[in-house]
Amino acid sequence: MSARVDVDGTTAALPTGGPGALGAPWSSGVRRRPDGEVEVAGVGAGDLAAEHGTPAYVLDEADFRARARAYRGAFEAAFEQIGTGVDVYYAGKALLTVAVARWATQEGLGVDTASGGELAVALRAGVPGAAIGLHGNNKSDGEVLAALDAGVGRIIVDSLVEIERVGDLAASRGVVAPVMVRVTTGVHAGGHEYISTAHEDQKFGLSVTPGPDGGTSPALGALEAVVARPELELLGIHSHIGSQILDPSGFEAAARVVLQLRADLAERTGVLVEEVDLGGGYGIAYLPADEALEPAPVARDVAAAVAAVCSELGTPLPRFSIEPGRAVVGPAGMTLYTVGTVKPVTVSPAGGGSSDAEPFTRLYVSVDGGMSDNIRPALYGADYHAEVVGRLSDAAPVLARVVGKHCESGDIVVHEVLLPGDVRAGDLLAVAATGAYGRSMASNYNALTRPPVVAVAEGDSRVLVRRETVEDLLALDQG
Ligand SMILES: *Cc1c(COP(=O)(O)O)cnc(C)c1O
To answer: For residues 25 and 235, what is the distance between their CA atoms, to the nearest angstrom?
Structure first.
């Protein structure tokens, strides 16, 4: 990656916020003022709501930048220690806007894209082509050509047919396409543990495990197919093992498999690929009790594993790259809602005959958004944390469930959270750590308009993506 901006004072620790900060899972700029109102980077929740309306995604710019620096700093330090370099790409699918792409670039990160649309946002932001990667298991010819025309630094190819297609398209443009081959290592991670299976039943990548007839693995076959095409330059091997990973041993296991494959390819073809990318997936805190993965120890462990395996295999060290998305933008964002209907519901615990379980009351707190602005609770059963942020209440906390306004009982924003017993219509409520996969997975279900993305820095807020209007929706409808 050629274009990077050097950042002074690079720090390898995640930002935690100073005195008065609410702490994780909130961004480092979130504090409760003495009068009880919560502020983000100096801007009060009330002012944010008054100026931008609710619901709104609020991004703490300094926190995003600090996390980008922390990942870059930690991995650069660890890999420098073992004698090689590292590139950090921000995975744009977590949240990509023109400003966000610029922040990533200014902090010395590249930008990974997974579609022509994401590529267009990165290019609009002025991200140099060389610092952009293009992913996807089903890229269109148009997307590949757009990437070639932009001079992207790497196209991560995902199948044999795609290798031939990218080769043909590069030939048609008279260019050589820089490619990495995405492989599946059998290592899957996510949540608290990783599992290892020989054969993969999923759409991404090419397996390192030979098929039933033995012989060459699909991954090795694909690498050889790239080597055979003069229109393709084989940069390296790519592996992405999962998301929201809290047990870093999966990264080490995947590194081992990829480095073995690299050595096998070198032995068969004499080509030793220069780069190994281990993807993203670094886990964050969603709840106050969660422990995020800290970049420095992960970087040290992965670097140590890479050094050890390369030394065992007798191969020189590769250049390394990673692609954090959630870990950079997730904690930097929160969603600000206004409370509407509040309804106590008496719940009889499931189990029919068991008479020892007492009925209890759950307070259903409805907000002015829901599954259209955060699909993750409905899609993955994801847990979030919420607080009333417009005032401090001394009412006793009650068990609450934050729900949206959609026509669906699964429209849950926060499954379970303690909120002040006097939570009421008009209260401002914020949900923490919604920066990643919130806006980027948002929909218009029930013809709700998607909320704006508002950045806050040093006491000022500005709109990065404006709120959709019903006119926007009607403009698409051809009647
Ligand atoms: C989703 C994805 C990432 C980012 O994952 P996070 O969990 O957001 O860090 C990185 N690389 C690839 C190939 C991905 O598909």
So the answer is: 37
